[in-house]
Amino acid sequence: MKAFTYERAKDPVAAARAATRPGAKFLAGGTNLLDLMKIEVETPTHLIDVQDLKLDRIEKTEDGGLRIGALVTNTALSADERVRRDYGVLSRAIAAGASGQLRNKATTAGNLLQRTRCPYFYDTNMACNKRKPGSGCSAIGGYSRQLAVVGTSGQCIATNPSDMNVAMRVLDAVVETVNPQGQTRAIPIADFHRLPGDTPHIETVLQPGELITSVTLPRPLGGTHIYEKVRDRASYAFALISVAAVVQKDGSGRVAVGGVAHKPWRVEAADAQLPAGAKAVTARLLADARPTEHNAFKVPLVERTIAAVISQARTA
Amino acid sequence: MVGGAATAMAASTPSDAQTKRTTMPPDPAAMPVTMPVTLKVNGKDRPLSLDPRTTLLDALREHLHLSGTKKGCDHGQCGACTVLVNGQRINSCLSLALQHDGDAITTIEGLGTPDKLHPMQAAFVRHDGYQCGYCTPGQICSAVAVLDEIRAGVPSHVQADLMARPQASNIEMRERMSGNICRCGAYSNIADAMADVAGAKA
Amino acid sequence: MKFTEPAGTNPIDRMTVVGRAQDRIDGPRKTTGTAPYAYERHADAPDAAYGWIIGAAIAKGRIRSIDLDDARGAPGVLGIVTAGNAGPLAKGNFNTAKLLGGPEVDHYHQVIAIVVAKTFEQARAAAGLVRVDYDRASGSFDLDSALKTAPLVGGDSNEGNKAPAADRVGDFEKAFAAAPVTLDAAYTTPDHSHAMMEPFASTAMWKGDELHIWTSNQMIDWGRGDLAKTLGIAKDKIRFMSPYVGGGFGGKLFLRADAIMAALAARDVGRAVKVAMQRPLMANNSTHRPATRQRIRIGAAKDGTIQAIAHESGSGDLPGGGPETAVNQTQLLYAGPNRLTAMRLAVLNLPEGNSMRAPGEAPGMMALEIAMDEMAEKLGMDPVAFRVKNDTQVDPQKPDRRFSQRQLVRCLEEGAQRFGWSRRHAKPGQVRDGRWLVGMGMAAAFRNHINRRSGARVTLQSDGRVLVETDMTDIGTGSYTIIAQTAAEMMGVGLDRVEVRLGDSAYPVSAGSGGQFGAANATAGVYAACVKLREAVAQTLGFNSADIAFAGGQVSGGNRSVPLRDAAKSAPLTAEDKIEFGDLGKTFQLSTFGSHFVEVGVDAYTGVVRLRRMLAVCAAGRILNPKAARSQVIGAMTMGVGSALMEELAVDTRFGFFVNHDLAGYEVPVHADIPHQEVIFLEEADDKANPMKAKGVGELGLCGVGAAVANAVYNATGVRVRDYPLTLEKHLDRLPEIA
């Protein structure tokens, strides 16, 4: 871990301003950043601890949704009664991720920015365009069982590892930020994460110094909320794939998939196929899938898991 | 390719991250050597002056010599470093000590001593909920916190109804304990120990 | 004491302390975090500096240059040791790859340097400034292709599992060709990582030319010997201590890099140094259980009598390494007049393959016991009945050699009855519980018991307390407690009157912990020392030692009864002895037996497998402490679930390394994977084994579990998977269509 200086920011704009300094990074829970700093995948020279920013509340929005402070922990978000009642898919997705210890520390904003678990990204002896742009991708042609099948590029086949993000995507959450000039903006979750393309090291649309202050959820959708996570061991493991869905009584609804792409994966045209069944949904969702030999199973697995979701929604 | 001299490889090549570093070491003079922080550990204020890079885990183990909290992986992948911070369990390896100025930390040493075991520690002994002992302090800290979380109504992945109050059932405790790996495989006995303390049937 | 004749009646037979389910005497320390492990010797080495290990970035080749200047100039750095300045180092007897690489690199993450600094943070940061240039050489990394030209090679795991390159009885080919019912199937097991929770860790301190090292090692004397050999110093100049070991599973049988690097670093910087290997280095730096490619052929008569059985296995290792002896159990487990076993060994430039819990039998039984399940189905027989049919009470290769004890049939039948095996549908894919396809499976369990010489020193102290000292280790096995139980039984005192000191080269050399040989041999060594101490006590107190009893803290004989402590009134009484073995282990085959029964659910949608119930029945001689022994078995069952369902070191055959080299990538079972586990021990006392009449059990619990899981999965789905681990993609495309 490289040496760094440390400060605790007192308000969001000051934090954002401090973060324009070269090598500066925000520190929230730290569960992902410190992990990566220890192996020098991340090498910030200045940390801005944002824990005192009072962004840890969940409040109602004017239009009947919820505003989740950036620093609300995963545990607090999953346990919030309004979230459990109206946004069950989010509560369940979070509870399916990591461990109790990590969820107590990990924050909403941090989870949005969680970096990939690609093993070649984690091994600094290996080429990785995400870690070092232009160095190549060791994962392509390597051990890729966990990696992406859709939206990949010739530069990167990493996945977004978050469970929460999949639920946020299916709920059409909006990420709210403030920049060093004090300007705020609202970024729909669909636009927040980027596909790897030729710049896999740029993972979100956030600008330098831009600080996530909250995430808002639109008014409750009703329907049945389901999060299905498929993994080798029963808990404390990243998803091979996951499916977040909100299904209405008439069989319509929406679905997003995790573990298949560089971002939580949702295709509007696939949502429309929910009444037609899992095959039709998957055909739209993964139409452009280009899996590897190791992860080709993810395509039929997505279809079968969506079938499980539809079946569950019917009997709910 | 690294230095141009390595044998060509098939599909792609390892980077030179390990082999060629262009970044200069940080100027030591420009860096504060240590920063003050006060941790309230097992009820006692412990003022420390620490390298900012010091994790809560290393502050406990190396600076306060409370080595009951274990380092199994140092990357949040095993749970051996679990401690309670303001009553909530966290992985102390993935937290800087500086993040915890003023926080109340409870470690395994704060739960009980060999002569005066905490009920959970005693239950682990009774049910043989450990073998090599290395994950054990983390398991016990987690177990204590899990029963609190169930009482507080924190939901879990295996809960059928999110709006119902969770119960200290076998599957609930197992899911919630899954962030604590025991390679010796004492899980079945740990579940029995926890059920004993929770007053429930495993 | 030399054990040459079957044990007669002895004080252990009283079973007033031995054989009772005792809480572990080290429990209060372990559960309060006050048991000090190797990296936690604050009291012994208060000013220890911190070492950070650098592993090689290539699998094979040569270090062209290594630039230490920036690192040496970094804050707090006290020294850096590489092969360039370490001085001459030999390779330990038990190591295949040298522990400090450079300039040649033998495998990925082989240690090439250690950076020592005043603080942990400084050492880690400075290590990041070391620049290494490599000349990468091509290597052999693909087992399947390397096996095509691999020779037949015999092997010995050093843990009681050995098999010749090829072994034949009768005429296998002819009998197999003539058999009316045959199976010829291929099975694969992947590389496995020990993944013990405590990393490799050592604190080293030189006192003049004497080295004191606190480390995490299963075998004190092996480790000490190889450390001395590697450093080129006399063995008696090393004090080697491992009183608490945070798991080993075979990974800590041998001297490892943490110990040698701590010793070198401490010498270099002139103060104590402690080193814990970083978790991401462990899988590639250390040893692993090698992957196997196995072929099993069984030919049987229509009534299920096996007429021909062949088990062939191939594995790989670094040059100079050995094979995974996966065929060993097939020489002994089932009857049959025509037999063949053979092993091939390929040269691979992956990290070193070596012992992991139940080497040989663990992967061997994973294959053999699926084959038995397949064969039973072909015969239309119940899998339990098929195994019972082919039981043997003699070594099938040497029919005049009997098993000392063999209760396999009882294990199978009792397990079947307790588990409700009769409710299993012979036809697979018949049981559904909601979205779960439900199946039951079973397997036999088998693991040899081995005798090893083991010593101990026992002292009767003036307060009447008994002190036991031996270099035996407790790696979670319960050694502290069973040794205390043994001494308490022998000396007729309560468990609380015994103090046990372990894991220190200052004490007599013991069997050590490995190969499930630790408990029986180490306690037999304590028994031997206690026999001597009893004689000394008797003599001191003026008894005729032939007919006295030690009980309740009293020594009684004739019409006289004297407090035991009186014998140490003037001075503590010490006795030292060791157990040594004659030929009983050759005259008889010493083995342990069991059965595993499991019920699984397979998600009809996703193909994910989850355990529902598990039962093991074990016959392994006298069980010294049923509580700790049960823990050994459930722990082994848990590891078996891991190898059945998730554990696999993924090989990148381009770069020659295990890709998933941390605990997030290499998944081992968690709480949620493991249901309540039942263990039954059959009554048994094996008088041919040792005076304790005990055998090993810690590895028996692993042998066969994986196959039982695989057979249950087959019973649930009707899809046979022969490649471990049984991850969902292995059968997803063959599962029933979904609505």
Concise account of the structure shown:
Chain A is an alpha+beta fold.
Report what the structure shows.
- The complex is a heterotrimer of chains A (316), B (202) and C (739).
- Chain A is an alpha+beta fold.
- Helix content of chain A is 28%, strand content 18%.
- In chain A, the strands form three sheets. Chain A has a five-stranded antiparallel β-sheet with strand order 4-5-8-6-7. A three-stranded parallel β-sheet of chain A has the order 1-3-2, with no helix packed on it. A three-stranded antiparallel β-sheet of chain A has the order 9-10-11, sandwiched between helices.
- Chain A starts with a strand and ends with a helix.
- Chain B has two domains: 35-109, Ubiquitin-like (UB roll); 119-198, Orthogonal Bundle (DNA polymerase, domain 1).
- Chain B has helices spanning 56-63, 108-111, 119-126, 136-152, 170-176, 187-198; strands at 35-41, 44-50, 82-85, 88-91, 104-106.
- Chain B has a five-stranded mixed β-sheet with strand order 2-1-5-3-4, with helices on both faces.
- Residues 1-26 of chain B have low confidence and may be disordered.
- In chain C, the strands form nine sheets. Chain C has a seven-stranded mixed β-sheet with strand order 4-6-2-15-12-13-14.
- Chains B and C meet through α1, α2, α3, α4 and α5 of B and α1, α3, β7 and α15 of C.
The CATH homologous superfamily of the domain at 224-315 in chain A corresponds to CO dehydrogenase flavoprotein, C-terminal domain
What Rg of chain A do the Cα atoms give? 19 Å
Principal-axes shape call of chain A: globular
CATH homologous superfamily placement of the largest domain in chain C: Aldehyde oxidase/xanthine dehydrogenase, molybdopterin binding domain
Query: How far is the N terminus from the C terminus of chain A?
Result: 49 Å
Say what oligomer this is.
Answer: heterotrimer
| Count of discrete structural domains of chain C | 3
Mean pLDDT reading of chain C: 97
Class computed from helices, strands and strand pairing of chain C: alpha+beta
